[in-house]
Design goal:
Low-confidence stretches: 172-181
CATH topology of the largest domain: Immunoglobulin-like
CATH architecture of the largest domain: Sandwich
Number of domains: 2
Shape: rod-shaped
CATH superfamily of the largest domain: Immunoglobulins
Radius of gyration: 27 Å
Order of helices and strands: EEEEEEEEEEEEEEEE
Strand content: 35-45%
Number of strands: 16
Number of helices: 0
CATH class of the largest domain: Mainly Beta
Length: 181
């Protein structure tokens, strides 16, 4: 049996039909799961009527350790189980990336500031799909997203700032905002 496409709460199981069908065609398969962190004897039915030799198993617990077993069924009865050779952990195959570098101010206008930052040292094993820039006014506790969609690059013009106010940007320093003459 092969376990593939392991995700945050799911995986795919695939297997081959039995070489000996007992003289009658296999009509379906029964799949059971076991959360190895709970009890060694706790096999729980997942489905009792799978027609294919592959199934996407959903609604698993993230970071739980699982084993699976499959039974072939025909008019004569149920086979002995085919069990996964080892248990496996349900989790994403990558982690979160490191934080990007502190933002640098490149330009200040009457109502904007242009920031840039360095890419994170580690991407966590998965592609970085974008960046969020957040700001807050000095003395406020409320962070506000500046961009509506994730940024692909490492530079952003932060719009709609008010002259003579101080702002703080995530992972950055406090910058005093005033027009450069």
């Amino acid at each position: 049996m092969e376990v593939s496409n392991i995700g945050k709460t799911s995986c795919t199981l695939s297997w081959h039909p039995p070489s000996d069908d007992g003289g009658s065609r296999v009509t379906h398969y029964i799949i059971e799961k076991r959360d190895c962190s709970k009890s060694a004897d706790a096999w729980v039915p997942y489905t009792d009527h799978c027609k294919e030799t592959q199934i996407s198993v959903q609604s698993l617990n993230e970071n739980a350790n699982y084993e699976f077993r499959v039974f072939a069924c025909n008019v004569n009865g149920v086979s002995r189980p085919l069990t996964t050779s080892t248990s496996f952990t349900i989790k994403l195959p990558f982690g979160v990336p490191d934080a990007p570098g502190e933002p640098d101010v490149h330009e200040i206008g009457t109502n904007f500031v242009t920031l840039s930052w360095q890419k994170p040292i580690s991407d966590g094993g998965g592609p970085i799909i974008g960046y969020w820039v957040e700001r807050k006014e000095k003395g406020s506790e409320k962070w506000i997203k500046c961009n509506l969609t994730p940024l692909l690059g490492c530079m952003y013009n932060v719009p709609n700032l008010i002259e003579e106010k101080e702002y703080e940007f995530r992972y950055g320093k406090i910058f005093y905002f005033s027009e450069i003459n």
